[in-house]
Amino acid sequence: MKKYILLNAIRNLRAKPALLRKVKILALVGVASFVLIGGLLIWAAVAAFNSFSAKAVTFAQTNRISEIQTISCWNQAQSLMNSTSLLQKPLADSWSELKNACFKQNPATQEGSST
Questions:
Q1: Could you tell me the pTM of the whole model?
Q2: How far is CA 85 from the centre of its chain?
Q3: Which of the 8 DSSP states describes residue 112?
Q4: 40, 42, 44: which is closest to 52 by C-alpha?
Q5: Given 3-state DSSP classes, what are the helix, strand and coil percentages for the chain, each rounded to the nearest 5?
Q6: Burial class (CB in 10 A: 0-12, 13-18, 19+), 97
Q7: What is the full per-residue pLDDT of the chain (115 aa) written as tens digits?
Q8: Chain Cα centroid distance, residue 31
Q9: C-beta separation of 85 from 94 below 8 A
Q10: Taking every pair of C-alpha atoms in the chain, what is the biggest distance, in angstroms?
Q11: Are 97 and 88 in contact (CB under 8 A)?
């Protein structure tokens, strides 16, 4: 039964050339829009992936900087635990070195200048 409906529709389209031309144009516009939307979706996916990867790289780099800062702080604290370093340098110098290694400070605020 469904075959007869489809065959009957095809016969009606062949009988009316103006209707057949409109159906062809509609099918062509549908295929072109499908290809255009597919291309836009692929472009959006690639752009989102590039943005995500760039943000991930910057996030990883900032975490590595804080890891390096933590490691240098730990090394400085361990070196201060050594009794000979405490005897050789004044306590204020040792404390300022530890503070500089462990805490990120802005050089302008370190000097106390307000520019």
A1: 0.44
A2: 45
A3: T
A4: 44
A5: 90, 0, 10
A6: middle
A7: 677 888 888 888 888 888 889 989 999 999 999 999 999 999 999 999 888 888 887 877 666 655 555 666 667 676 666 666 556 666 667 667 777 767 665 444 444 444 4
A8: 33
A9: yes
A10: 107
A11: no
